[in-house]
Structures
1.
Amino acid sequence: MSDFLRVASVSDVPVGASLKVVVNERDIAVVHCADGVFAISDICSHADVSLSEGEVIDCTIECWLHGSQFNLRTGEPLSPPAIFAVPTFEVRLVTESDQVFIEVATEPKPVSTDGKQ
Ligand code: FES
């Protein structure tokens, strides 16, 4: 079971935005879409590019360099040229003193045997 690290307040990441954070020495993109807050590896699986600099479209994030879109829930690419999923991380929202904080698991979600998360 993973530990969680508090990385930001929800007010730091409005709907449609993403924020690069570092958890356990990994760069992670925290992304807020209409369905909630998600955490996905910040490094595109196609090349060493920061996904948090891409555009949030529905519940995907689009790599700014070649346009692959990644499912925020599973990390799977939905369009080429990327073919490999990126790791995803559990997120929990914690309310304290009328503020909602984002906490991200320190280890990625397990990958299933079919390569999906
Ligand atoms: S670097 Fe992300 S799709 Fe090519």
2.
Amino acid sequence: MLYNPYPLLESALLESDPDAKCRAAAELFEKLAAAGGVGKPAAAALDFRFAGRPQKPILVAPADVQKRKMSTTEGYAAMLHAICHIEFNAINLALDAAYRFRNLPEAFTADWIRVAKEEAYHFSLMRGRLNAYGFDYGDFEAHNHLWDMAYKTAFDPLLRMALVPRVLEARGLDVTPAIRAKVAQRGDEATCAVLDIIYRDEVGHVQIGNHWYHYLCARRGLEPVALFRTLIARYDLFIFRGYVNIEARERAGFSRFELEMLEDFEQSLKAAPKTGSWQQALSR
Ligand SMILES: [Fe+2]
């Protein structure tokens, strides 16, 4: 029997209570696994501007998120909270991909429902670690950069796959080893174990994004490496700033060739004189 996941995807996406959202993500995965496939309705997805989220954390601009020293308990908890917030957004991003992009093979829908279930698990585990230090999700401010990028790429699954899993989620692969080292230094083995689960699963999530990015490029007759460079430049994004985890990115489906090309390209962008900027146009 086919399972139509769209009503539950919609209510899970709009759900503002984190526990209920996590339960819905797990239920979607179980129902789909028990069914013989995805039943696709004729109705189109609704274009929600915002996904469901609790009233707290208070959202501020990325630059306004207060920086705290990790040496204090509060600062350490703020770092755990930031990871919690990323995982919470990742649930919404995965639900949104499965809900919104309907004219794709059912493996796409199944992949993103599985990702949503895993992100819900990560969120619950990390929230548990935050609770262990006497704090909860919502106790610190946060920014909405991840969801904003989801909305900016909502009109095209190729753009979404290119810029969310391949840029933003892949960035998690770069930063997690350093965070884990700091957590280990503090002797917090329980959080290290959670970070290990997150890191392992995120390689798979970026891999899913890579797979569907290449699938959509092939279907449209587009050259994936050149297109990605164009998108990176056009959306003012970057890959090579700070440490880049080549080994994990290769496991997640980036080729060494593409990564080397990207590094060269970004260096050439940095070195190039900024001709044609609006400041220059005004000063002429
Ligand atoms: Fe995650």
